[in-house]
Amino acid sequence: MKTFQPAATTSSAGPDGKAFFRTARARLAPDAFAALLASIKALNAKTRSRQQTLEDARILFGPASADLYAEFDELLSQHLS
């Protein structure tokens, strides 16, 4: 089982993407992290919507990592705005 690590800190400019992915990689199982990356790749290729990607993330993070989901949502909002 992965040890708990707090989500990356958020500055006034928003969350730090590198810190987020470092934390997500540490907290998710390898296959879940790979699935997250695949979902993001599909979003970037415009084959999945933002909502579909967020739903994938919600499932992958689960209730124990709701903080990561919230940070991911904020990162997507910044990136897609």
Brief rundown of the structure:
Helix content is 65%, strand content 5%. It contains four helices and two strands, in the order E-E-H-H-H-H. It has a two-stranded antiparallel sheet with strand order 1-2.
What does this structure look like?
It contains four helices and two strands; from the N terminus they run E-E-H-H-H-H. By secondary structure, the chain is mostly helical. The protein has a domain at 29-80. A two-stranded antiparallel ribbon has the order 1-2. Strand 1 and strand 2 form a beta hairpin. The longest helix has 15 residues, at 30-44.
Low-confidence stretches: none
Which H/E pattern describes the elements?
EEHHHH
Total helical elements = 4
The portion of residues assigned to helices is 55-70%
Keywords for this structure?
mainly alpha, 4 helices, 5% strand, 81 residues
Task: Set down the secondary structure blueprint.
Blueprint: E1 10-11, E2 14-15, H1 17-27, H2 30-44, H3 50-61, H4 66-80
Antiparallel strand pairs: 1-2
Helix pairs in contact: 1-4, 2-3, 3-4
